[in-house]
Amino acid sequence: MTYTAEIIAVGTELLLGGTVNSDAQDVSKLLSTLGINVFFHTVVGDNPVRMKQAVEIAKSRADIIITTGGLGPTFDDITKQTLAEAFGKKLVMNEVEAERIRTFFRKRLPNAVMPDNNLRQAELPEGCVIFDNAVGTAPGCAFEAEGKHVLMLPGPPRECREMLRMCVEPYLRRLSEDEIHSHNIHIFGIGESAVEDKLRSLMENMYNPTLAPYASDGEVMLRLTAKAPSREAAEEMMAPVMTQVCEVLGDLIYGIDTGSLENTVVGLLGEQGMTLAVAESCTGGLLSKRITDIPGASKVFAGGAVAYGVQSKIELLGVDRDLIAECGAVCREVALAMADGVRIKLGADIGIGITGIAGPQSDGSGLEPGTVFVALTTKDTSQCIEPRLFHDRERIRIGAANNALDMIRRLLS
Fold first, then answer.
1. CA distance linking residue 138 with residue 154, whole number of Å
2. SS3 of 20, please?
3. Pairing state between β 140-145 and 148-153
4. Considering Cα of 252, then 253, then 255, then 260, what sign does the dihedral take?
5. Measured on CA atoms in the order 407, 409, 411, 413, is the torsion positive or negative?
């Protein structure tokens, strides 16, 4: 049987935007690996009338209802009461859970008196399966009624995440016969619409597996997904599609399941025993940050310099003063000089130089915001590109860093 699920996140703070609904993301990730289709996410405030309406809607369209939040001890924690009423269940005090809550307080707050209302957390629907809370006081639970599986999880992300791993996954794994497995195909150098145009005929005729594009800052990801009784069967279904996609997109694909351009670049540098140094102006250290975010980058990253002003380009990187006077700080020649300067000073195999105008205003040179030059040099080669970047300041900076990483990736590939 194929199950469909709806996730109901409970909490007025989610509606007000003060809290990010990371629980729903964690639950969806787990369900996708178990072959359970998530068709709806609902967020409802701490209001019993609207909560009941949300539950009734979920009952009409989902086999599995999973709630997060609203299991605490205060008057606005209404999840258990609402769901119990919706499914005709009584709430009964579970003495084992009540004693666990008392013990939790004695150990964590030995000098405090536990408020009696904390024991409300031990009131659970009759006949339910109890999910132990290893890091908090509110237990979760699950029951089956009216042909539906109902699961209630605590709202604090750490508690929810631990309960998913320890309790919910084993419970749900017994329900689903299939698994869902995916591969993420990472693409740079082409937009989402162009990717879709190249692969439209393939995607239109797919049902299982499926192929869907997702756009992010300056790049595109294709998610290839198959549903099958086992990982091996899913991989067998996806293999011919993966081959077709790679044939169509070629070197526009910078990695599969790699996570990011910087992951790919650090991996390639390590495989080839090469080192990198970067000189940044308009990106202000963003490229260096992204590279050093990757564990193990110290083995391949010699260092970087943020030469933001003209004087720093001259003194730190050895860029010729007359060159800047003649061509301006934002030009192909200065980008190449920056790349060479940092590479030579730090003794790296590859040097990157980035100079440009991130905006939102021009720098008075007559060049438009988004004018960026990205240069790469080695002892034997040099190249410089002028990518077409636009939109806001942050996206221009991200685009410049992305293009630098892609240049390194193509050199090493």
1. 7
2. coil
3. antiparallel
4. positive
5. negative
- For the chain, give the longest Cα–Cα distance: 84
CA atoms of 107 and 103, how far apart (whole Å): 6
CA distances from 148 to 39, 155, 351 (A): 15, 22, 60
CA distance 202 to 213: 12
Q: Where are the beta strands (DSSP E) in 34-137?
A: 37-44, 64-68, 91-93, 123-125, 129-131
Token pair for 104: 């939790």
Which residues are bridge partners to 93 per DSSP?
123
What do you get for the CA distance between the two ends of the chain, in Å? Answer: 45
Q: Which residue, among 46, 55, 132, 63, has the nearest Cα to 89 in the 3D structure? A: 55
CA 98/CA 114 separation, integer angstroms: 12
Residue 137 has which token pair?
């006081």
Of 298, 317, 313, 326, give the one whose Cα is nearest residue 356: 313
Domains and CATH numbers, the chain: 4-173 (3.40.980.10), 180-256 (3.30.70.2860), 261-412 (3.90.950.20)
Q: Is 343:351 a contact under the CB 8 Å cutoff?
A: yes
Predicted TM-score (pTM) of this structure: 0.72
Cα–Cα distance, 314 to 279 (Å, whole number): 12
Which pLDDT tens digits describe the chain residue by residue (413 residues)? 678 999 999 999 999 998 999 999 999 989 988 878 899 999 999 999 999 999 999 999 999 999 999 998 888 889 999 999 999 999 999 999 999 989 888 887 787 788 888 899 999 999 999 999 988 889 999 999 999 999 999 999 999 999 999 999 999 988 877 788 889 999 999 888 999 999 999 998 888 899 988 887 778 999 999 988 889 999 999 999 999 999 999 999 999 998 899 999 999 999 999 999 999 999 999 999 999 999 999 999 999 999 999 999 999 999 999 999 999 999 999 999 999 999 999 999 999 999 999 988 877 778 899 999 999 999 999 999 999 888 789 999 999 999 999 999 999 98
Closest-CA residue to 254 (of 97, 52, 410, 96): 410
Question: Number of H helices and number of E strands within the chain?
Answer: 15, 17
For residues 275 and 270, what is the distance between their CA atoms, to the nearest angstrom? 8
CA distances from 27 to 78, 157, 184, 339 (A): 20, 11, 19, 45
